[in-house]
Amino acid sequence: MKQQSRFDLIVIGSGPAGQRAAIQAAKLGKRAVIIERNNVIGGVALHTGTIPSKTLRETILYLTGWDQRGFYGHDYRLKSEITAEDLRLRLDITIQHELEIIHRKLSRNNIDVIHGTASFTDPNTINVHQEDGSSLNLSADYFLIATGTRPRRPDNIEFDDISITDADGLLNATGLPESVTIIGAGVIGIEYATMLNALEIDVTLINESANILPFVDREIITEFLGHQKNRGMKFYSGTKIQSILKTTTGTVITTMENGEKHECEVLIYTAGRIGCTSSLRLENAGLTANNRHLIKVNENYQTDVAHIFAAGDVIGFPSLASTAMEQGRTVALHAFGYEKVCDMINIPYGIYSVPEISMIGKTEAELQQENIPYVTGKANFQETARGQILGLRSGMLKLLASSTDRHLLGVHIMGYSATELVHIGQSVIKLQGKLDYFLNNIFNYPTLAGAYKIAALDAWNHMQN
Predict the structure, then answer these.
(1) Mean pLDDT per segment of 10 residues, for the chain of length 465 residues?
(2) For the whole model, what pTM was predicted?
(3) Which 8-state DSSP code applies to residue 397?
(4) Measured distance CA(346)–CA(328) in Å, rounded
């Protein structure tokens, strides 16, 4: 990098938000630099979060022959003995390919990357402490904090990254356990619980809150949990944890307040994440973080100091790679006087569990709370020709539409390719479309997308009665 200390935009963090902000700034003819504290770029999304977990999921489904069991039976396997090394192989290849793509994008846009730990010295300057002990002072017209989050590790739990770990530590496991207890049934906990269950590992999922994934439609959750219980997974919710202790034999015992005990080989703690802001010295910039180390922003992702922005997981909900990308892009556009081109209304949510869950729009509970009259329409994947071809034994698509004008209000899917199929419903909702779109159009046959028409016909039939 040429010696330079002044930039138009300094981005702290090289995850999806940071990358998109820097690239967008470069497209506008601005000079941007990314500061990354780790030796490699990509952030949590590439190295411990989105890409690794989704890659592991695909690897597990392939090696276990999961998608073929509808035809060949529960005992079907593509590979009889699956090891941690098998899982790691595909993960390493995928991450390396993604790294190459990111490097090419940044290089094409003349974006410098400086590796080191950034901290504010004042609202207009940061100090970057590098691994060799040297440091740089850099200033800019605008700053973006996109440092992401890390797993929360309560002080009363003895993490050793062997028998007690979190989702990040799980990626470094050298072997596959026979039994696992997962604490926390959020998105991360659910995804890993179902992946490990697909590997025939004995999984116990404990959620101290009574509700599991409260933002998901309750009928979808009921269907999903029923599927998991049939697979042998054990669920416990609504009971506080009293203690988590390692035994002399290396197992871990979780004791609940009601006296129940759950023993396992490995415990994975996935109950919450906190922002990576402690090293930023936010106070020197006139900023503070909340008790979860997250930063408050306005609708344009500005902090309380107008020329300092924050985006991605470090600002909290919805904490999705997809939204982080657009937040970063919006930051660059707003900072340099351009209008944003993407809104955050009706964004799709994807849970890469086994099977997948995806949704967009309102849930039944929300419609009821808002006193909006609605009608439902459903289609079961196993009742479609494509579902039979694929050997599906579960899966459901559910539509919610206004019972007065037939406008599509919500789409909720559980099953094969749910995170892909949801985008059809997203288009209709974004364009303020109605059930008529599905009723009056012809879908390829056989397809799972045809389930939209089946569900729309089901809703239309309900409206006639």
Answers:
(1) 79 98 98 96 93 95 87 78 92 96 96 97 97 94 98 94 93 92 96 96 95 94 94 93 94 95 96 96 98 96 98 96 96 94 88 97 97 98 95 95 97 98 97 97 97 97 87
(2) 0.94
(3) E
(4) 18
**Backbone dihedral region for residue 438 (phi beyond 0: left; psi -120 to 50: alpha; all else: beta):** alpha
> Measured between alpha carbons, how far is 185 from 209 in angstroms, rounded to an integer?
9
What letter does residue 6 receive in the DSSP assignment?
E
Phi-psi region of 13 (alpha: psi -120 to 50; beta: other; left: phi over 0): left
Domains and CATH numbers, the chain: 6-150+274-335 (3.50.50.60), 164-271 (3.50.50.60), 355-464 (3.30.390.30)
In whole angstroms, what is the distance from residue 165 CA to residue 155 CA?
A: 13
Burial class (CB in 10 A: 0-12, 13-18, 19+), 408: buried
Amino acid at position 138, single letter: L
Residue 451: DSSP 8-state = H
Contacts 24+ apart (CB under 8 A), 444-449: 445/385, 446/384, 446/385, 446/386, 446/389, 447/386, 448/381, 448/384, 448/386, 448/387, 448/390, 448/395, 448/416, 448/417, 448/421, 449/421, 449/424
Residue 215: closest CA among 358, 24, 340 = 358
Task: Name the amino acid, one letter, at 341.
Answer: V
Long-range Cβ contacts of 271-274 (<8 Å, 24+ apart)? 271/152, 271/183, 271/184, 271/186, 271/189, 271/208, 272/151, 272/152, 272/184, 272/186, 273/149, 273/150, 273/151, 273/152, 273/313, 273/319, 274/149, 274/150, 274/152
Whether 28 and 336 have beta carbons less than 8 Å apart is answered as yes
